[in-house]
Amino acid sequence: MAKKRPVINSKRLSDSSRFVTREELDQVIASLKETISSLQNNQSDNLGYLQDAPRPKIFHKRKDGKREKLSTTVDIVLFELIKQRQQSGQQLSHILDSALWNYFGCPKLSFEADDKD
């Protein structure tokens, strides 16, 4: 007879005396798979799981804030994904702004007002 292994109870991490059945474990795994699939299929944000970076206001055909030019090369898979986003109407600059903004922890951008109140 195989021993059942204890699984940590999600309500109290210190309580490891609860055992789960194979059926309960299968239900949890099925639920996780469903959640992951739902997240992958519901990419309603412009960048999938990432937040869009804030967009600057435009004054006299110029964006508020300071901008710098960037030239680089990327992997072909990433390039194709960027092209798909552009074909759906997104600007390359906003795609890159959003990816970098998320990567660096969503800092305030040059056009955002400082909250010194």
Summarize the SSE layout with pairings:
Elements: H1 22-41, E1 58-59, E2 62-63, H2 76-87, H3 92-103
Antiparallel strand pairs: 1-2
Description of the molecule:
This protein has 117 residues and is mainly alpha-helical. It folds into 2 domains: 1-42, no CATH class; 58-103. The chain has 3 helices and 2 strands. The chain has helices at residues 22-41, 76-87, 92-103; strands spanning 58-59, 62-63. It has a two-stranded antiparallel sheet. A hairpin with a 2-residue loop joins strand 1 (58-59) and strand 2 (62-63). The N and C termini lie far apart (67 Å).
List its salient traits.
38% helix; mainly alpha; elongated; 3 helices; 117 residues; two-stranded antiparallel sheet
Helix content estimate: 25-40%
Radius of gyration: 23 Å
Contiguous runs where pLDDT drops below 50 for at least 5 residues: none
Helix run count = 3
Spatial ordering of strands, largest sheet:
1-2
Span between N and C termini? Answer: 67 Å
The structure class reads: mainly alpha
Major sheet details: 2 strands, antiparallel
Number of strands: 2
H/E element order: HEEHH
Count of separate structural domains: 2
**Shape estimate:** elongated
Q: In percent, how much strand structure appears in the residues?
A: under 5%
User: Could you tell me the mean pLDDT?
Assistant: 76
